[in-house]
DNA sequence: ATCAGCACCTGTTGGC
DNA sequence: TGCCAACAGGTGCTGA
């Protein structure tokens, strides 16, 4: 479900409320376990003060004293909610009670989402690649990452080890604005195609953050509210509908087992 | 070293 | 109206 813009929105919602608070109690579902197998024990988190909340790829990062971090991955249907006065939430998988009486709830219908406590460098520990907004990521660096890769550009964008944070919606959208077909082999893109793709990717991610993310179905922000960017999608979920630029019906194919949307005229 | 395919879960939707 | 297959924003594992 949530991709970079949704995760960024939640992290920004939570940061000012959680900063300086201490975790006084933690409850976590055991079947199936919400904590990842490679997590430090959950009890390590109790009694710790929260320094900040950020993001690495699609992970929400809750940074604690003692070089400790809690990474939250929402996968398809996870939500992370702040409650100033705690009340019941459906599909709750974990709760963090804070020293001011507030609570952070992790709820997830499909139970794919995971928590992981760890120490050390987040990008290294979590295996996430470069951030799309990193200044050092230019057409040249993109070219080096993609050199020799035969995967379709869309599949490559979804692999978090390369560029981290792009998911199915924003991969489709950025390829549309760049005028590149999802099936094009990433290693064979021209420099100008890579340039256009980077510009499109950043523009669409920035706009989506501005609109507080896309709520196609389950996504909610840190206050439980929907995003607005689903109203501005150009191709995602629009199979058969006219392309906003040329009027040709948007096509849907399956690539890497994911629904993939593009305009057969605007995308070469 | 890649990459396709399936597994993990539950809920909603669309076609017959 | 009812049933069931297909599909859903993600990733990890297996085996070719």
Secondary structure elements and pairings:
Layout: H1 4-18, E1 23-28, E2 50-56, E3 59-64, E4 68-73, E5 78-83, E6 92-98, E7 103-108, E8 114-119, H2 122-126, H3 139-146, H4 153-158, H5 168-178, H6 191-210, E9 251-255, E10 258-262
Antiparallel strand pairs: 1-6, 2-3, 3-4, 4-8, 5-7, 6-7, 9-10
Helix pairs in contact: 1-6, 3-6, 5-6
This protein binds a DNA duplex (16 and 16 nucleotides) through residues 1-3, 6, 32, 58, 73-77, 91, 108-113, 149-151, 155, 158, 160, 167-170, 214-219, 236, 256-259.
Give an overview of the whole structure.
The chain has 268 residues and is α+β, with helices and mostly antiparallel strands. Helix content is 24%, strand content 22%. It contains six helices and ten strands. Strands 1-6-7-5 form a four-stranded antiparallel sheet, covered by helices on one side. A four-stranded antiparallel sheet has the order 2-3-4-8. The chain has a two-stranded antiparallel ribbon with strand order 9-10. A hairpin with a 2-residue loop joins strand 2 and strand 3 (59-64). Helix 3 (139-146) crosses helix 6. The longest helix has 20 residues, at 191-210. It is globular. The chain starts with a helix and ends in a 6-residue tail after the last strand. The mean pLDDT is 96. The structure holds a DNA duplex (16 and 16 nucleotides).
